[in-house]
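Lab notebook page, bench 4
Experiment: in silico fold of construct C2
Operator: M.H.
Input chain length: 635 residues
Purpose: comparison with the prior construct
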Amino acid sequence: MNIKVTTASRRSQKLSEVPSAIFVITQDDIRRSGATSIPEALRMAPGVEVARIGTDKWAVSIRGFNSRFSNKLQVMIDGRSIYNPLFSGVQWELEDTLMEDIERIEVIRGPNAAVWGANAVNGVINIITKKAADTQGTLLSAGGGSFEQGFVGARYGGKINNETPFRVYAKGFTRDHMNTTSGKSANDDWHNARGGFRLDHSRGIDQFTWQGDIFYNSIGNAAGQPLSPVITLPGTSRGHSEGGNIRFRWDRTYSEKSAIMLQTYYDRVDYRLLPVTIYKTESFDIDFQHRFPLFEKHDLTWGLNYRLYHNKVSDAELISFNPRQQTNQLASAFIRDEITLIPEHLRLNLGTRLDHNDFSGLEIQPNARLMWTPDTQNSVWVAVSRAVRTPSRSENDMLLNVRTVNAIPGTSILPLPILAQAMGSSNFTSEKMLAYELGYRHQFSPHASVDMATFYNDYSQLRSFSPGFPLFQPGLPPHFTLPIGFNNNASGQTYGAEISADWKPHEKWRLQGNYSYLHMRTQTNAAIAQPDPGSGAADRVNPQHQVSLRSNYDFSDRIQFNLWLRYVSKVDLYHIPGYVTLDTKFVYRPKKNIELFLVGQNLLSQNHREFVTDFIPSLPTHIPRGVYAGAEWRF
């Protein structure tokens, strides 16, 4: 409860003082879990749905609407947004860092759009890396096994002078392919190389940070499967992605309640995977923030943001864009006031953010939160928020060859096959949500605490589809094309609860557990809605129950044994049954600076299913059992 967090209000405060549903995944949690990627680490947080699609792809969302591109979730690394406005979502295979360099991951369940803007609808994830001063010396790690075939990492931290620490790192890995339900290879084995640096400089009341990364991925996709009589994936569907980013941040701290911040970053991605898509993206962002006290009882924070996003998409067999390239801009301003009504006991947070984008114009996202702390052991909070998910380029300009259907809704079966084509529309507008939240935290003792949150979300103008008139195509083979347009005719309601508990019954033993419940209901008057997991079929694509139980035990300073048991209930849309998994990690330290470890993943079954492969929903992949071992040396 005393962990410091910054994402909820853009300033440092104790978790127990935050009027939001927030969960922190620490570096110790990540290390003990054996997770080798950020999405796998996110499974520890309540209310977060993580489903692995393949070796290099995940579907990650908070409080529902899970899909390959979950479009109602804002994700950042050190405050740098990695949300892709081309497809409305996060491509997790593009985002990584040295796992040992992550200080913590702050997960906010529920809207935080008044602070972070459009698309922070169902939640915000902020991956925060360590300062350069905290990563001094040399770290070497390596290992391998069955599915995690091989990995290596290296980091060196030093100092230019006492005020200017730095670090550089490099990592690489290779992971095996998965198999489809038919036993065939999904052709998605993954090879990755990544490197980066961070430099921090302190000068009086000023703090400067300069940070950057570059990466290369060799990736693939399910192959050799016909999508329609006119579209078939070739036998070898391989490709690559590469890119990098650079970030600069300046902080000036006048006092505990007065500071300014200026951050800017640039990133670039080149993604090639035929016949799926080929695209290049560039983005530039500048963010300013100012915090100051006013009239003793007011703690004000305001800021401005500008983002420029340029992308160029080449025509591919499955996806094309018109126009092929485009530059979009986003400008926004926000203000937040924390009002102390009763010192140390009752605080009111009021705020709003104004975003102007090229697709839907001006969006206003207000927020009100009340925090009551009757004593040091208890806190209760309540919140009402409005948030929007703005359109992406794909919903305006894309042509996607979806699948073959045998008939047009409301008509008899035609003698020729029909190729459904999803077509973007300039009339598609923002999805909207009103959220109502209630939370309670209790600290039983310094060794035990519980955190509970409930919510009700009301969504309107959700994405849905409407079919047009079929057109005859005399090609080989002859077929009909069925245009399907995007519209905002769907709506939905969700409610649920999350509870997490942390207990340390002994100085050598720590237990952590959480449970999440989610109920969803969606409505639409569109003729075609069910295939869309992002809205029309969202109530059938998310598990209703999730449980996570972790046990971390230190036999001595040299030996640790960690267990992680998880349960996820069924996913109706893809006919995926519920499953239970068990991960373990055994650690032995022959010397203080040397660590040997053995990790077992998904140990309770040979394999299980979690989601579906891209573009071939009838072919879910099997997540295999895995074992890997490794060593880490620090000096």
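Observations: The chain has four helices and 38 strands. The radius of gyration is 24 Å.
Next step: discuss at group meeting.
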